[in-house]
């Protein structure tokens, strides 16, 4: 795991830069905003301690908040999915369990497992993020539509990225 730390640091910075420089400028119809930076939390190894997950989730969200001036919205949503991740992994664990030195990626556990895993966490992230952004229930259904559409686009980009970097992540 220690020899993989530089790879995770690089992916942290690349995902933050991708989000801030490219994906934050994409708003399809004002409804769809892809948030792919959470892929960093999704691909962390299974044996990552819970306290480290929460700290990394905060640092990831805080980095996005600094660049987008969103006052903690991304931080709270990222910490929430970092908190939720161990429970989701426990619920959808394979019959034989997880191998300790692997990561939750398509190359290790297959596409159907990864779809379940990432869909739950991406939807949870978007749910918290968009309702904190709106901060009222008068636009409940419009916000729910934004959550669903943005989650679909984010998941599509995350799935595509898994196939581009399948060999690199499994090493």
Textual characterization of the structure:
- It is a single chain.
- The protein is mostly helical.
- It has one domain (2-169): Arp2/3 complex 21 kDa subunit ARPC3, CATH 1.10.1760.
- Helix content is 68%, strand content 0%.
- The chain has eight helices and no strands.
- It has helices at residues 5-21, 39-42, 50-68, 73-91, 106-109, 111-134, 140-164, 166-169.
- α1 packs parallel to α3 and α6 (111-134) runs antiparallel to α7.
What are the defining features of this structure?
mainly alpha, 8 helices, 171 residues, single chain
Summarize this, please?
By secondary structure, the chain is mainly alpha-helical.
Helix content: 55-70%
CATH architecture: Orthogonal Bundle
Total domain modules: 1
How many whole angstroms does the radius of gyration measure? Answer: 15 Å
What is the average of the pLDDT values?
A: 90
Task: Please tell me what the overall shape is.
Answer: globular
The fraction of residues assigned to DSSP E strands is under 5%
C-alpha end-to-end distance: 11 Å
Task: Describe how the helices and strands are arranged.
Elements (H helix, E strand, L loop, with lengths): L4 H17 L17 H4 L7 H19 L4 H19 L14 H4 L1 H24 L5 H25 L1 H4 L2
Helix pairs in contact: 1-3, 3-4, 4-6, 6-7
């Amino acid at each position: 795991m220690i020899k993989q730390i530089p790879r995770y640091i690089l992916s942290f910075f690349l995902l933050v830069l991708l989000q801030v420089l490219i994906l934050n400028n994409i708003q399809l119809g004002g409804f769809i905003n892809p948030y792919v930076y959470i892929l960093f939390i999704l691909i962390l190894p299974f044996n990552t301690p819970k306290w480290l997950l929460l700290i990394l989730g905060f640092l990831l969200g805080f980095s996005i908040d600094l660049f987008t001036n969103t006052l903690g919205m991304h931080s709270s949503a990222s910490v929430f999915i970092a908190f939720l991740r161990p429970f989701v992994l426990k619920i959808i664990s394979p019959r034989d369990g997880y191998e300790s030195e692997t990561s939750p990626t398509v190359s290790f556990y297959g596409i159907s497992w990864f779809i379940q895993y990432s869909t739950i966490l991406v939807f949870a992230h978007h749910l918290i993020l968009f309702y904190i952004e709106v901060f009222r229930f008068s636009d409940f259904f419009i916000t729910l539509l934004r959550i669903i559409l943005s989650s679909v686009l984010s998941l599509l980009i995350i799935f595509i990225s898994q196939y581009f970097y399948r060999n690199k992540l499994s090493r």
